[in-house]
Amino acid sequence: MATTLGTVDFHVHPIPRLINEKELSREIDRSKIDVAVLLALDVDSSYLEDKHISSRILQECIWASNLNCLGCLENVKEILRTSYTSNEYVAKLAKNNPSKFIGVGSVNPSKSISYVKDKLKEVKNLDLAGVKLIPTLQFFNPLKEKDKLQKIFEFCEDEEKIIIFHTGCDPSIWEEPAFSQNANPAVLEHYVRKFKNVPIVLAHIGSYSRKYPGIWLEEALQLGKKYNNVWFDISAVPYLLVDRKYVEKISREVGWDRILFGSDYPVVWGSNISTVVDFIQVGTPLSENDLEKVMYLNALKLLGL
Ligand SMILES: [Zn+2]
């Protein structure tokens, strides 16, 4: 079993309805995580109260899965209500424990441009390290929200912030790829090319999908091959570091200097951070050097630590 000098978890959700500050700290310590990046989630369940939006989603459900899933809407609302994590809360956790936690804010591009601008100001004032975007739960198409995405990227360029962008499918209706097309890394090329100074982390390397594991891995790696500002986290898809087929592909296409460890804790059910760390350390064919980069050194570099 390989051991590393230290570990940075680049993808943790301090969702107040799932876990409190004490439980989170305990899990981080128990798993011997040196630094955890805590992600806010600016999602809004009232989005689905709009009749036009909810009937459109229902219609898409029928097209995508041939199911009339009225229950889906309630399930989605519940996910949005549960997962909401404010920028202030994340900033507070980071402030209470600055050597352990780094806070990343979140901005919802499906809201108005003035809302987006206000949220960016908030991210700046709270001294958060970046902006998390999640086109599935936030219901936005990166190519249709150009004004807002442009603002977000400009802000991150001026303020030297990181963007963490969810890629791949997601639980619930988003397991159906038709609902997750906006999280295909290929839709990001316009921004990645234009803002070469903004580091963008493709969370889950485009790969998370229960039905089709590795669904947009190819698209993610191709983007990373073309642009050096593209990084990747392996949260929810740790098998990419264990299964030789994937390890060889990543080695060949982008190498290990921009791959980051992340656990997605506590969102992946039945698993805690140390389970994921052990799974990787026991099973990975990576050299000690490369594993060290993924678990620790790459994150330090990206975070400027
Ligand atoms: Zn996540």
Largest sheet: 8 strands, parallel
Which residues form runs of ≥5 with pLDDT under 50? none
Please count the beta strands (DSSP E, at least 2 residues each): 8
The CATH class of the largest domain: Alpha Beta
Give the full name of the CATH homologous superfamily of the largest domain: Metal-dependent hydrolases
Number of folding domains? 2
- Tally of helical segments: 12
Characteristic key phrases:
305 residues; alpha/beta; TIM Barrel; 8-stranded parallel sheet; 12 helices; globular; binds zinc ion
Describe this structure as you would to a colleague:
It is built from 12 helices and 8 strands. The protein has helices spanning 21-30, 51-65, 70-83, 87-96, 113-125, 146-159, 177-180, 189-194, 217-226, 244-253, 273-283, 288-303; strands spanning 8-12, 35-39, 101-106, 130-133, 162-168, 200-208, 230-233, 259-260. The mean pLDDT is 94. The site of zinc ion has 5 residues, from loops.
